[in-house]
Amino acid sequence: MKRSTALAMKQPILAKYVGAAVTGLAPRIMGIGPSLAIPKLLGKYNISLADVDVIELNEAFASMAVYCVERLGIDTAKMNVRGGAIALGHPLGATGTRQVVTGLSECRRQKKRVLLTSMCIGTGQGMAGLFVNEQVYPLYQASGWDIAEKFTFLIEWLDGVQMRNIWQEPRS
Known about the structure:
There is one protein chain. By secondary structure, the chain is of the alpha+beta class. It has 6 helices and 4 strands, in the order αβαβαααββα. Strands 1-4-3-2 form a 4-stranded mixed sheet, sandwiched between helices. Strand 3 and strand 4 (about 125-135) form a beta hairpin. The longest helix is centred in the middle third of the chain and has 16 residues, at about 95-110.
């Protein structure tokens, strides 16, 4: 949704989607796709891993995640801080959503700004996405109510508390 539309509808701005990169590699080694997609994405926006605050690297298999960490020099203190696919699950068709929700929640908790997500894709692909957290800045609470009011369920779900309805109206 466009920012202007969200503000007109009094919806909070959680983050800005910056962009993505997709790469291909031999299908027999599809699990290491992030090792190619991440540098491609970072190069596209002329930034480095040092500029990234939180990294969600899908770990469909632990050995492939270790390969990507070692190959790229990822700081593991920034990676999968709340657990990755092995700990939280690897839902078919929902990996990207899980990564973005978990990553933005962690950015909000730590008051960090730049989120990088990446995953391998079957048949020999890798993908990486870049997001800028906007939950830390009061400017984006211009929608009339605190972002936390409507989106607390994300944080609570990730903390193991029972999930609430996303569409409930803010309390008066």
